[in-house]
Amino acid sequence: MINLMTLELKKYKIRKNVFIAWICNMVTIGFVALVYYTANNPKEQAFGSYEELIAVAGTFINVIFIVFAGVLLSKFIIDEYRDKTIYLMFTYPVNRKKLILSKLLIIGIFTFCLTFLSYFFVVFAVYLIFLLTNTTLGEFNTHVLYVLATQAFIGGIVNTMVGLIPLYIAMKKKSVTMTIICSVLIGGILNSNSGGFTLYSIIIIPMCLSLVGALVIYYAIKDIDMKDLNV
């Protein structure tokens, strides 16, 4: 499995995608700071504590990396189905399930790790901006770090699993456009903010969607050995 993943990473250059994701993080930092500093009065501010800052930053990060997962799905799987190169790979003496699973593991690992790191990167960057401008939201203590680490971990898991839901559409339609549109819709709806409320904040919803993601992965690879190679 490790060898398959290594070969996949050598075949596809994803540095550009990772770079774009970090650019999006930089935009998030600027936007979060802008939202805070342009508020006319404290009551209009999007957040008044570091815990709320984590939630606001997380909203943007979650959307970014759910879409990021969709982009990687398109690159690693849909492009190969569309170009029919996947069928050539299926003729090799390699277990098809392991081949598809290796691709999904790469997508999942990158989505989780980048989500987790992005939470810390964005929050610490905004915190640094606050220090430089003599702004404070209270004490940045171990409790805040605990909340940050917890939200980063949960966000990583949820974004990884939810980000793979478009795989269902991807395997049916073999369309890059449909896959990415599906990712944008899922990320946008789940993290759409209305008066500080998001569907993501209702823990049962991301949990259920994560379960859906797991089921999509299972059914995507369950019968892959039985699929006809004739296209």
TrEMBL record:
Q: Which UniProt keywords apply?
A: Membrane, Transmembrane, Transmembrane helix
Where do the TM regions start and end? 20-39, 54-78, 99-132, 144-169, 176-193, 199-221
What Pfam families has UniProt attached to this entry? ABC2_membrane_4
Asked if Transmembrane helix is a keyword of the record, the answer is yes
- Indicate whether Transmembrane helix appears among the record's keywords: yes
Q: What is this protein called?
A: ABC transporter permease
Species the sequence originates in: Vallitalea pronyensis
Recite the lineage of the species: Bacteria, Bacillati, Bacillota, Clostridia, Lachnospirales
